[in-house]
Specification:
Length: 276
């Protein structure tokens, strides 16, 4: 049997890294890409085929996919769009340029790479495209407006693509984690410090009493937090099932929020989300 291949983005840590390990152990040929060259070097030392893919640069997307296809002889069985980051802060404190910046990585990069992969999968007659969304792709939390917006947009774009791909042999899947052990909070700090003038905000007291503590203090895992391996288990299902689901929910909060969104009126839902 020919070894199946997958390109995964955001493999430096967390979900991407665990998915790369899991699939490699299951016999997949994994192209584990990262934004930073030093992370790629570390993964290469661990035995991965790793090279740079930075969603914010067209040339990086082009080059990474070209390298991948060069190594496989022009085929790719699956793509797992995973790399993303957050810019914590109140929406009223979020500069529009910050929103443009995060969309470049969390949505536009996904879109460009996916558009380039689709012709490859069409030509070979099969393919799987997995997009890593979040519970925040359908239920908001305060202080996360930028991240919420990118994930809501991704869900809309992915749903549309899935419907459009029904007449092709390409399956399109949303992965919807809730709280997962990762470095997303630590990785968000530089973006928060770059973009959010919290000291000059009318919400300064709220930042000091809530968000800043969450960002800078290690208070242990979140409630219901699961390890990244919980996501990898669903990724395996999405890739290896003959009829993958449209969505794979992960963690109790994701299931609970999905139910509450269906049964509660908006005002009641807002009250719950405001308390979270």
């Amino acid at each position: 049997m020919t070894q199946k291949s997958i390109l995964i983005t955001g493999c430096s840590s967390g979900i991407g890294y665990d998915a790369a390990l899991t699939l490699k152990d299951r016999g997949w040929r994994v192209f584990a890409t990262c934004r930073a060259p030093e992370d790629c070097a570390r993964l290469s030392e661990e035995g991965f085929e790793s090279f740079v893919l930075d969603y914010t640069h067209q040339s990086s997307i082009d080059g990474a996919l070209a390298e991948c296809l060069k190594r496989t002889g022009g085929t790719l069985d699956a793509l797992f769009n995973n790399g993303a980051y957050g810019i914590p802060g109140a929406v009223e404190d979020l500069p529009t340029d910050a929103l443009r910046s995060i969309f470049e990585t969390n949505l536009f990069g996904y879109h460009e790479l996916t558009r380039q992969v689709i012709p490859v999968m069409r030509a070979q007659g099969h393919g799987r495209i997995l997009n890593c969304s979040s519970v925040l792709g359908f239920a908001v939390l305060k202080w996360r407006g930028a991240y919420n917006a990118t994930k809501f947009a991704m869900e809309g774009l992915t749903d549309t693509l899935r419907v459009e791909m029904r007449d092709t042999p390409i399956h399109v899947v949303l992965i919807q984690p809730g709280p997962i052990t990762s470095r997303i909070r630590q990785n968000a700090i530089p973006h928060f410090e770059k973009w959010i003038d919290w000291r000059g905000s009318v919400r300064r007291d709220q930042y000091e009493g809530s968000l800043n503590k969450r960002l800078y203090e290690d208070n242990g895992p979140d409630a219901f937090e699961l390890p990244a391996s919980a996501v990898s288990a669903k990724v395996v299902q999405a890739l290896e099932s003959s009829r993958p689901k449209a969505r794979y929910k992960i963690t109790t909060p994701t299931y609970v929020m999905a139910i509450l969104k269906r049964v509660l009126p908006t005002r009641a839902m807002d009250w719950i989300l405001a308390k979270a």
